[in-house]
């Protein structure tokens, strides 16, 4: 048995050395200049730390969440490699015979060879990001693979070192996803919103019409039909997507006692608008990718909503509204349940939406980030009649917790105030957005201002300026009023 094990190990070692020598003999044009530098950039996780900051500052809320998970996965993989992996196998580094001198690192690593820490970090960060945001993960994957390959190309690792490191990195990404999902479920706690006395109880679902956005593409939307038939059998179910959605929601709101919706935050926004205009309660069945609104409301899943509708338990929540011009009755008014923004984020979202069908989501996201970082002029407008120059104007429906110009979650949707954040213009957008990302939630700094208001008048908006609300993209009017509508919408939630 011992002889067989020695023979097996010898075969692996010979195969490893053969692949190592094949790479050493092969010359790829341009690789001698790119791969060693790429490997050095990844030393101590600096490359991935920079990528995490860039994604967090310039990306959407989902991208920021992905960046955090990627960094956590990298930390777990690095700790495991350095405390267990390196010192349990103690494999010596490859002999550099045959590796061209121009490829070799100026300073050779002194740690043991198995497994590759660079490969583990690269694949841990990429896996952590990809499990939360597949588009960003696809954009990072070629970089991670190049960093891992550079370790063989420069002669500091055998191929099996890199393969093992990559596998450990991916495993770290899955472990962090499991841990963070458990933590997210634990933090889904109802806020202090005012109870909606008199909300209709529909024990069998009669009077409830649920519009499902089948384009959300999650398991929640496909399993809703079964659960409704079991818990609310008389509820009406309407499936649609794309341009049909707004019309189906408006029609359902006209005939229903309660309007239900299953989809992501953009779909829920459209349903809330229809429910507000019809004056009826809303039942949210979480079915999107991120479900920020449902989590902040305190809904853990579809069963929570079914129970709340059957029992007649609901709360009043505030809603943000943006109205073109000074007339609050303007029919062009839009609503936001999460947040509204002008500046860097809408520019990023618009570029990504425009280029994704042509070059794919990941490359489009990178192109959008590059264009935002290269922006030469901030948006010049007036806030409450005073001229301002801003890289980002953010308005949250209720106070967001955590740091940054557009941070993470809210403890209550019944506060009745807008969370206003400004990143001042001047200088380059990248450093200022980064500085704002590390500022306190309600602090004032040379680059970042945060406060809470009931309303804000925005005027002299340049023509063609984009705006974003709840992940949707549109062109801003030349003037608008942002305001909070306290207790404007009744939404079902378990007691």
Outline the secondary-structure elements.
Layout: H1 2-25, H2 31-41, H3 46-58, H4 61-89, H5 117-130, H6 134-153, H7 159-186, E1 208-213, H8 219-231, E2 236-240, H9 244-255, E3 258-263, H10 265-278, E4 282-286, H11 292-297, H12 302-311, E5 314-324, E6 334-336, E7 339-343, H13 344-359, H14 361-373, E8 379-383, E9 386-397, E10 400-401, E11 409-410, E12 418-424, H15 429-437, E13 448-453, E14 455-459, E15 466-469, E16 472-475, E17 480-492
Parallel strand pairs: 1-2, 1-3, 3-4
Antiparallel strand pairs: 5-6, 5-17, 7-9, 7-15, 8-9, 8-14, 9-12, 10-11, 12-13, 14-17, 15-16
Mean pLDDT: 81
Evaluate the radius of gyration: 26 Å
Structural class: alpha+beta
Total number of β-strand segments?
Answer: 17
Q: Give the strand content.
A: 15-25%
Q: Are there runs of 5+ residues with pLDDT below 50, and where?
A: 1-6
Instruction: Assign a percent range to the helix content.
Output: 40-55%
Number of helices: 15
Give the biggest beta sheet.
Answer: 11 strands, antiparallel
Distance between the termini: 64 Å
Q: Please tell me what the overall shape is.
A: globular
Structure description:
The protein has 495 residues and is an alpha+beta fold. It has 15 helices and 17 strands. The protein has helices at 2-25, 31-41, 46-58, 61-89, 117-130, 134-153, 159-186, 219-231, 244-255, 265-278, 292-297, 302-311, 344-359, 361-373, 429-437, and strands at residues 208-213, 236-240, 258-263, 282-286, 314-324, 334-336, 339-343, 379-383, 386-397, 400-401, 409-410, 418-424, 448-453, 455-459, 466-469, 472-475, 480-492. The strands form three sheets. Strands 5, 6, 7, 8, 9, 12, 13, 14, 15, 16 and 17 form an eleven-stranded antiparallel β-sheet that branches. Strands 2-1-3-4 form a four-stranded parallel β-sheet, sandwiched between helices. Helix 6 runs antiparallel to helix 7 and helix 9 (244-255) runs parallel beside helix 10 (265-278). It is globular, with a radius of gyration of 26 Å.
């Amino acid at each position: 048995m011992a002889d067989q094990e020695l023979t097996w190990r010898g075969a692996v070692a010979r195969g490893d050395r053969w692949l190592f020598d094949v790479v050493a003999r092969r010359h790829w044009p341009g690789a001698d200049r790119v791969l060693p530098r790429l490997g050095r950039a990844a030393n101590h996780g600096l490359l991935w730390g920079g990528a995490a900051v860039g994604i967090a500052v310039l990306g959407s809320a989902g991208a920021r969440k992905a960046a955090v998970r990627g960094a956590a996965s990298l930390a777990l993989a690095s700790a495991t490699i350095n405390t267990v992996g390196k010192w349990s196998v103690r494999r010596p580094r490859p002999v550099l015979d045959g590796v061209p001198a121009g490829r070799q690192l100026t300073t050779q690593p002194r740690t043991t060879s198995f497994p590759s820490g660079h490969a583990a970090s690269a694949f841990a960060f990429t896996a952590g990001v990809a499990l939360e945001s597949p588009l960003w993960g696809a954009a990072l994957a070629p970089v991670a693979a190049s960093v891992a390959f550079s370790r063989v190309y420069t002669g500091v690792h055998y191929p099996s070192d890199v393969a093992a490191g990559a596998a450990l990195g991916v495993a770290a990404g899955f472990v962090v996803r499991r841990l963070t999902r458990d933590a997210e479920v634990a933090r889904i706690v109802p806020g202090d919103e005012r109870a909606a006395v008199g909300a209709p109880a529909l024990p069998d679902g009669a009077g409830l019409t649920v519009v499902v956005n089948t384009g959300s593409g999650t398991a929640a939307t496909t399993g809703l039909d079964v659960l409704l038939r079991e818990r609310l059998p008389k509820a009406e179910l309407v499936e649609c997507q794309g341009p049909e959605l707004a019309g189906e929601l408006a029609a359902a709101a006209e005939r229903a006692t309660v309007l239900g919706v299953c989809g992501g935050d953009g779909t829920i926004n459209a349903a809330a608008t229809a429910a507000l205009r019809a004056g009826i309660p809303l039942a949210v069945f979480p079915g999107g990718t991120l479900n920020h609104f449902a989590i902040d409301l305190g809904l853990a899943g579809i069963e929570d909503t079914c129970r709340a509708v059957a029992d007649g338990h609901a709360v009043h929540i505030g809603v943000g509204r943006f109205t073109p011009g000074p007339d609050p009755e303007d029919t062009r008014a839009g609503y936001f349940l999460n947040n509204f923004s002008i500046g860097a984020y809408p520019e990023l979202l618009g570029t990504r939406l425009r280029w994704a069908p042509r070059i794919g989501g990941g490359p489009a996201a990178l192109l959008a980030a590059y264009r935002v970082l290269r922006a030469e002029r901030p948006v010049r407008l007036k806030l409450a009649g005073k001229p301002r120059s801003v890289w980002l104007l953010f308005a949250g429906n209720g106070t967001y917790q955590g740091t940054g110009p557009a941070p993470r979650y809210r403890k209550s949707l019944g506060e009745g105030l807008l969370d206003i954040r400004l990143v001042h213009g001047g200088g380059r957008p990248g450093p200022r957005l980064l500085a704002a990302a590390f500022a306190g939630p309600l602090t004032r700094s040379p680059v970042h201002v945060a406060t809470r208001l009931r309303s804000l008048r925005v005027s002299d908006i340049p023509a063609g300026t984009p705006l974003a609300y709840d992940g949707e993209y549109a062109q801003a009017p030349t003037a608008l009023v942002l305001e909070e509508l306290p207790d404007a919408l009744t939404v079902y939630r378990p007691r």
